[in-house]
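To illustrate the input format used throughout this study, we show a single complete record. The first block contains the structure-token representation of the backbone; no residue identities are included at this stage. The design step must infer an amino acid for every position from geometry alone.
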């Protein structure tokens, strides 16, 4: 993977004006990262630089990496004589629009985008980093480090960090003084490139590489079925929520369903509420389980739930979803109130089958899952 490799945008060849030093936007670099590097290269405070580009706009009190309104993109473009689309691609709006099917309102949580929790210029989190990437020439912050499904660096195979390794405070490079390197912690001045590294194996990154591809190509696989990107991400989000709920509640049927899928001893803390607010290592382990569910396909997943006695009500757990795939799974599950039977199975919630029948079905299911994973 060389320095010209990119997933989300190629960067810019050159910035024409107006400052003496004009770093180019690097491949996959976040807009804020480029603004910070440009300010520091010219020896000026970031507030001074953005005050010149956008007089009167308090850019650092908002999440400019998530969305920069067209008016401000045009003003930046005019100032630097660079195509505004190049800067727009350095924000998370195009990625979010791809995974949601449309651009979301500014004042709400965006699924799969790590929130920075901006309060004035302070932040509570939202930016991850790879120490080895920051140790390379021209350290900068990347689009992928704001995406919830990215938990490890594909180049170095290290788990990403989501806060300073020394003081455990959030990463806030926009508040660094110009004399500081962009890879320094704002609070304790430790260099983040010196953070300890945790090697992960390539298999554990299967979900994130798959999610990257779905966001880029606009569709993904659920088993062997191709589904649109918004449906795939809604499904993965719902499965993440279902699995963490199973761990949290210790529900017998939910745990049994996960064991049927081959997920046991899951390293997900009981306090996990939503993937956007979860720690990087929590998401890393959770997504390995989600990866298994998605790869096994709809029918195998339904069978695993049915054999464990899961009803549509307990599966949905009062949640709503835009995912057609999730609704199809829920509709195929028995209803607790009506004792509805799934067409390919005959477990009745009102009249449980004998243990030997359930065990027979479980063995048959495991054989199907094994066959599906070997195909
Ligand atoms: Zn790296
Ligand atoms: Zn620190």
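Output of the design step:
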């Amino acid at each position: 993977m060389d320095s010209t490799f990119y997933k989300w945008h190629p960067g810019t060849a050159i910035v024409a004006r107006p400052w003496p030093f004009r770093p180019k936007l690097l491949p996959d670099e976040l807009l804020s990262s480029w603004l910070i590097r440009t300010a520091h290269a010219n020896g000026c405070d970031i507030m001074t630089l953005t005050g010149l580009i956008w007089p009167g706009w308090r850019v650092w009190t908002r999440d400019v990496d998530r969305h920069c309104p067209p008016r401000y993109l045009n003003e930046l473009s005019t100032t630097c004589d660079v195509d505004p689309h190049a800067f727009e691609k350095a924000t998370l709006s195009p990625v979010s629009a791809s995974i949601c099917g449309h651009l979301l309102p500014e004042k709400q949580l965006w699924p799969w985008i790590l929130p920075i929790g901006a309060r004035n210029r302070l932040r509570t989190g939202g930016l991850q980093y790879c120490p080895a990437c920051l140790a390379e020439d021209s350290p900068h912050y990347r689009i992928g480090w704001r995406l919830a499904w990215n938990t490890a660096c594909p180049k170095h195979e290290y788990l990403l960090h989501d806060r300073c390794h020394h003081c455990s405070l959030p990463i806030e490079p926009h508040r660094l003084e110009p004399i500081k390197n962009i890879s320094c912690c704002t609070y304790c001045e430790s260099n983040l490139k010196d953070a300890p590294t945790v090697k992960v194996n390539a298999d554990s990154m299967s979900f994130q590489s798959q999610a990257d591809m779905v966001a880029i190509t606009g569709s993904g696989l659920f088993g062997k079925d191709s589904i649109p990107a918004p449906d795939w991400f809604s499904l993965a989000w719902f499965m993440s929520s279902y699995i963490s709920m199973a761990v949290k509640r210790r529900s017998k049927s939910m745990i049994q369903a996960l064991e049927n899928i081959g997920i046991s001893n899951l390293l997900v803390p009981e306090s996990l509420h939503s993937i956007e607010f979860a720690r990087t290592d929590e998401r890393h382990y959770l997504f390995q389980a989600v990866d298994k569910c998605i790869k096994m396909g709809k029918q195998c997943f339904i069978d695993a739930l049915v054999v464990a006695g899961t009803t549509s009500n307990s599966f949905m757990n009062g949640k709503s979803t835009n995912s057609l795939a999730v609704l199809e799974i829920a509709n195929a599950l028995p209803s607790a109130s009506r004792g509805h039977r799934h067409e390919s199975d005959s477990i009745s919630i009102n009249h449980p089958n004998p243990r030997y029948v359930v065990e027979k079905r479980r063995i048959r299911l495991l054989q199907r899952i094994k066959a599906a994973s070997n195909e």
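Structural context for interpreting the output: The chain has a mean pLDDT of 87. The CA atoms of residues 161 and 345 lie 45 Å apart.
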